[in-house]
């Protein structure tokens, strides 16, 4: 998952917030024909465009300071790679290139999710829940928990608060994906300052 905000350059250049965005991101011109205008936005954005279910672009023509906010859910990141013509087989190389492009073009990352799949299933979410109760996990985080899906199946262990700057969830991806991905997934959700640190 990747969310970033394009910040309009300082000073009046005669261009609208949307025109500034397209000038700095000409790659998006090729997908404009796929835009669907949604009825309303959030957080002060009045114009929200969806591109199938792969990503959304939001802006407010009367509020330059809000910039242009772009959201790519995890399944939409492949579209972002194609927009930027990135086809390296290494996910790390592609991710590094995307973060570099965004930094060069005055974008601030507001949310970044990073996932790691443990195919060997070394530990389960149940293990982490048990260890936390036994004080075998050391953390400064005050919020943690375990949610069980079914007896001895599924389950999610989490540290942190959803919407906070740092949130970690460990869950049975095999159960969640109905058998498509046989792994335990470690998923880090980073926002604001922590997302920016990863970008740097």
Characterization of this structure:
- With 200 residues, the chain is α+β, with helices and mostly antiparallel strands.
- A hairpin with an 8-residue loop joins strand 7 (144-147) and strand 8.
- The two termini are 17 Å apart.
- It has a ten-stranded antiparallel beta sheet.
- The protein has helices at 17-24, 77-83, 91-104, 125-133, 173-176, 192-199, and strands spanning 2-6, 35-38, 47-51, 55-59, 68-72, 107-118, 144-147, 156-160, 166-172, 184-191.
Over all CA atoms, what is the radius of gyration? 19 Å
Strand content: 25-35%
Major sheet description: 10 strands, antiparallel
| Helix percentage range | 25-40%
Number of helices: 6
**Which structural class do you get from the secondary structure elements?**
alpha+beta
The total beta strand count reads: 10
Low-confidence stretches: none
Shape: elongated
- In order across it, which strands form the biggest sheet? 2-3-4-5-1-6-10-9-8-7
H and E string: EHEEEEHHEHEEEHEH
Spatial gap, N to C terminus: 17 Å
Topology:
Layout: E1 2-6, H1 17-24, E2 35-38, E3 47-51, E4 55-59, E5 68-72, H2 77-83, H3 91-104, E6 107-118, H4 125-133, E7 144-147, E8 156-160, E9 166-172, H5 173-176, E10 184-191, H6 192-199
Antiparallel strand pairs: 1-5, 1-6, 2-3, 3-4, 4-5, 6-10, 7-8, 8-9, 9-10
